[in-house]
Amino acid sequence: MQVQKITFTQYSPQTVKLVRYTNPSQADSISFSGQQQGNDEYIQAQKYANRMKILNFFIPQDLRDYNLHKLEGVQNGIKIFENLNMKEISFMFENLHAITAKRGCSNQCLHCYAGALPAGKEHDNYINKMPFETFVEVTDGLKELRKRLGITLNIYDGEHYTDLYYDADCMEIVLYDKNGKEHDLPELIDRYYNATGSQSVFDTSGWNHKNPKMQARAEKYVKYLTDYDNSEKFYQINLSLSPFNALYAKAIELGYNPKNFTAGIPVEALSEQNLDKGEKLYRIYIDRMANMLFTFTPLLGNPNFSIIARPLDNSEKNMKNFTLDDYNLIKKHILDTLYSKYLIDAKTDKKYVNKKSQIPNLIFEYSILLNSYDTDLIFSGRFKDLYIKRNPGQNIDDIENKFKNVTRFKNSFNAFKQNKDLDKTGVKYLKIIDANGKLYLYDGFRFLPTELQLNISTKDKTTPEFSPEPEDFIITKEMINKRFFNKKSR
């Protein structure tokens, strides 16, 4: 899993600016079906929702503008929302950061705030991904409720997107149906966007391009991402490139000095007996990163396309090999290797480069993206373990004080745990729905389990443990329902 550009902030719930839909006429105006005829609660909710649909044409609304008491029952008959009232449903989809259709990542990056591990083998009651049929259950249920409401459930106070993963790389997200047919990310994104109207993020830290299937998948994804008809489905398209990649870290651990690297020599061209293992890993890393940039060349110029580069500041004396200076050296090696790939392409396939004169401009455009780095890392996951290991003489409290929000968020959580009032958390908690439908709150440093769960076919399955391990403090339905108050009738 990569480090996304997630913003966790302190905030006062009373002062949050509502994010309203600016195009209410595009909201789904399909009226209620007759399947709930005879259900008084549903009929009354239908009448109220239809009045709000009319109002929404003149004054843009989101679910926070609705009287949830009057809306209660509108979810009746939608299987995934059984045993959930509208207050609880509204809570689930406010700042929903992810629905984890797929869990687990093979990249093992040291800066991974999710502490992602490779997906364990599924067995008995254990799953690492939703069956495709379960994903269809979720999206169909969301789409039906959206039709009934006329607006989407999703409400955001920050970044306006919901991922289909938490601890996975987008290149590895594939679901299978009961017949074993593969359903890849573009299909899942299409289905989720059509159901909710919410954008997603594409994130990858690279792939083994020597694997023909993975390279073909990457090229398919690039074609999908560059299609103008799909542009509105993505909040951001990220390539994660930093000195925390597992291949690079292992090369350093084996004693390789990147200053000895010479670009333009393929690993295959070097004699195995004369090739140091650390050097081989470093060359594989550089080649993989250069290929990632090469493959994503068609995205250059897309305003939503970015590079996530997260080295540490050079002032971190105990973090040699992971600082800005180290990143700049890596960047040079990657761009030099990319240049070589473009030269070969201009002479052979002409996939991205028709003539040599185009190459300097492409390298320049990538240089600009690669120069946009961020030295603020989230003090969580494997990065936290690495930093503590590299700074054995420092007190943990002193270390935490160096990183943005750690101490403040810890104090906010302790206060919240004591008063059990969701309106007084002082922190914007993101929501994550796991592959078994369970809802968790997440602030970047801790998970808080809740009593809420979607009624889906995998609801009784166990899933990989989140990292960090969820707190022994459960957000109850009572706490969630207490958060909502009667609103003025409309």
Task: Write a structural description.
There is one protein chain. The chain is of the alpha/beta class and 490 residues long. It has a domain at 1-205 and 414-490. Helix content is 36%, strand content 10%. The chain is built from 14 helices and 10 strands. The chain has helices at residues 40-58, 68-71, 86-92, 132-149, 185-196, 212-226, 246-253, 277-295, 324-347, 359-370, 381-390, 396-402, 406-419, 477-483; strands at residues 96-102, 163-165, 174-176, 182-184, 200-204, 234-240, 305-308, 430-433, 438-442, 447-453. The strands form 3 sheets. Strands 2-1-8-9-10 form a 5-stranded mixed beta sheet, with no helix packed on it. Helix 4 (132-149) runs parallel beside helix 5 (185-196). The longest helix has 24 residues, at 324-347.
Rg value: 24 Å
State mean pLDDT (0 to 100 scale): 88
Biggest β-sheet: count, sense, barrel?
Answer: 5 strands, mixed
Shape: globular
Alpha plus pi helix count: 14
Structural class: alpha/beta
Strand content: 5-15%
Unreliable residue runs: 9-34, 486-490
